[in-house]
Amino acid sequence: MHAVVVGSGIAGLITALHAVRTGVAVTLVTKDVLDNANTHYAQGGIAAVMFDEDSPESHVADTLTAGAGMCDEEAVRVLVAEGPDRIRELIALGVGFDRTADGTLKQGLEGAHSFPRILHAGGDATGAAIEHALVDALRASGVEVIEHAFLVDLVVVGGRVSGVDLLVDDVDRRTLAADAVVLATGGAGRLFAWTTNPPVATGDGIAAAMRAGAAVGDLEFVQFHPTVLPGDDPFLVSEAVRGEGAVLVDEHRHRFVFDVHPAGELAPRDVVARAIANRVIAQDGRPVHLDATALGAPDTAAFLARRFPTIDAAVHARGLDWAHEPIPVTPAAHYLMGGVSVDLYGRTTLPGLYAVGEASRTGVHGANRLASNSLLEGAVFGARVGDVLAIDHRGGVPAPSGLPTGAAPVPPAATPALPEGAEPFSRAALQRLMWEHVGLLRDAAGLARAASVLAAWAAEPREPAGEAGFEDENLLLLARGVVAAAAARRHSVGAHFRTDDVPTETPEGAAC
Predict the structure, then answer these.
(1) Which of 172, 224, 225, 511 has its CA 20 to 30 A from that of 351?
(2) How far is Cα of residue 219 from the mean position of the Cα atoms in its chain?
(3) Distances from the Cα of 299 to the Cαs of 110, 122, 312, in angstroms?
């Protein structure tokens, strides 16, 4: 059996490693170099029940609470139950999680967790440490790797996915046959003007699945990270900084998040991000600040440099001294909770097609992902997909059940006239449109405006020229799916907040 895995973050790498151990011949393709994936940029850590004082029920409860009642509980229980084994596997592969002087794993606390169960590596370089170890393991595994290979489309024959259409090195069009294709292509942060995601996060796998007719779900649930350094190159300031005791203050040094949630800065991400956005509006656009000046006193500078070396360097590179002065922060698009609908083994509604990681919709995140569950999801469900590919190929496992049928909720592009005042199509124009109308705060009028502009752009004849052109088409298709899903969900829940619904914030996050 031959499988193609598309994507080289934790989800794709774990999938490939597990699949090859079962005798599957694996080709892993990635649109950049092997180690350039969202995983590499993950700072906060990975959550798992690794301590005696913690419990699986507590982690499950925290995940369900953060998800605002929209999680698939069975998927959450799989995530939590299998998480510790995946951590042990990562350790065996060489991931050097931070430890105390006596050799025990260091415990970190992040928002909406009731126990400090977050594991870190290199202080704030957890994703890079995991990516490095997994890439080393993959290179030694016999998996064929094709770098700079862009997924143009899935090959579908007789209703079954049978390969991928690639653009290699931006010039060589190539078709690669496969018995199974696994999409591990990550999210789509580049839909928005401000994002923590790297340039590769253009939703390519999800868009290809949509074009092929696979079901998708929960596209309206886009998580915005609360604390990002503003500017032309936004830089995420990990939630772990607030877990260590940093606080958010407005221009009067008031800790304003407590006005909307009793957990303050450690409330669910959607609550904190909206609190920041609303306070900035109330301050006529002036920023709020993250105050870390009391951490590690009396030598705050040394503590910040030791505990958060990556963030510390980025802060200083922007001319800021966060050991002595609060730093400005703003929300930015961070994570897509929805994606290609899958069962507990990554199977989609299209035979031969699997999805895993941020490209998939497992249901573990509901309407608002719990901090540091994303790396865990990639590891847990990547292992499950890798382990089941050969079994499925032999016909030993039934087809997935309980998944929605049909393609993405995107209306036909039948509005050729560009609405008055709208910009001509460009990626930057799309990102501005999505940020303004489909961001943290949404309403019917804004969503309708976005839908009409996107439909007009989609109706324009275009021939993609190279990888960037194909990315633009993927972003446009996915944007239409996000807007359609957001318009269909008329009430606020989790990260999907409608100002024309105006629910009351609760300790569980946004009201359902």
Answers:
(1) 172
(2) 12
(3) 23, 20, 14
Query: Which residue type, as a one-letter code, is found at position 159?
Result: G
Q: What distance in Å separates the CA atoms of residue 102 and residue 162, rounded to the nearest whole number?
A: 52
How far is it, in rounded angstroms, from Cα 298 to Cα 101?
A: 21
Strand order in the sheet with 160-168: 149-157, 160-168, 172-177
Amino acid at 91: I
- For 300, how many CA atoms within 13 A lie in the half-sphere containing its CB? 16
Please tell me the predicted confidence (pLDDT) of residue 409.
59
The pair of structure tokens assigned to 483 is: 């807007």
Distance (Å, whole) CA 453 – CA 410: 14
Where do the domains of the chain lie, and which CATH numbers do they carry? 2-221+334-393 (3.50.50.60)
pLDDT in tens, 205-231: 999 999 999 999 999 999 999 999 998
Amino acid at 158: G
For 254-260, the CB contacts below 8 A with 24+ separation are 256/288, 260/505
Under 8 Å between Cβ of 36 and 405:
no
pLDDT 10s digits, 54-79: 999 999 999 999 999 999 999 999 99
Residue-wise pLDDT for 342-361, tens only, equals: 999 999 999 999 999 999 99
The DSSP secondary structure of 364-396, one letter per residue, reads SSTTSPPTT-HHHHHHHHHHHHHHHHHHHHTT-
Query: What whole-number distance in Å separates Cα of residue 165 and Cα of residue 332?
Result: 32
CA distance 62 to 77: 12
Chain-centroid distance of CA 336 in Å reads 5
358 vs 219: CA distance, rounded Å: 11
**Which residue in 160, 171, 195, 97 sits closest to 432, CA to CA?**
195
Any idea which residues carry the catalytic annotation?
269
**Which residues, at least 6 apart from 438, have a Cβ–Cβ distance to it below 8 Å?**
222, 446, 447, 450, 479, 482, 483, 486
| CA-only gyration radius of the chain, Å | 22
| Helix 73-92, helix 56-66: angle, nearest 10 | 120
